[in-house]
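Task card 7
Instruction: Convert sequence to structure tokens.
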Amino acid sequence: MREELRVAAYAVCVRDGRMLLARWVSREGVKKWTLPGGGMDHGEDPYDTVVREAAEETGYDVEPTALLGIDSNRRDYPRRLGTRADFQALRIVYEARVTGGELRHETNGSTDMAAWHPLDEVPNLERVGLVDVGLRLWRERPPNGHLVLPVTP
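Output:
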């Protein structure tokens, strides 16, 4: 099984009781809301990654104000020619504030829309799990940046 690692940086932007999200579009056309952010380029600092990705996906200039934590997610999935991949996502999550720019939608990227959503409506959105991770990190602010996951029966 092939091992794959993806390192990415994301922004939790909350303003006036609303959260900034970008709508991710899968290769199959499934659309779900996610945190603005994305993959780190080789040699790029994660801070610079989240600034670049937020601008690409939302049109806003953001300033990371705090490192909220690091989330790791692992899964395996099918690849071409019947092989499988052992995939790990390492996701660096920052709190960030908007400092400029104007809200706009990304073109020719992995997202197709950006919008502010009231915090109390976020649980009702079609969203990726990273949104919940980001909200928990923002609300709980664990000193070590690590969330304790609930025990499943």
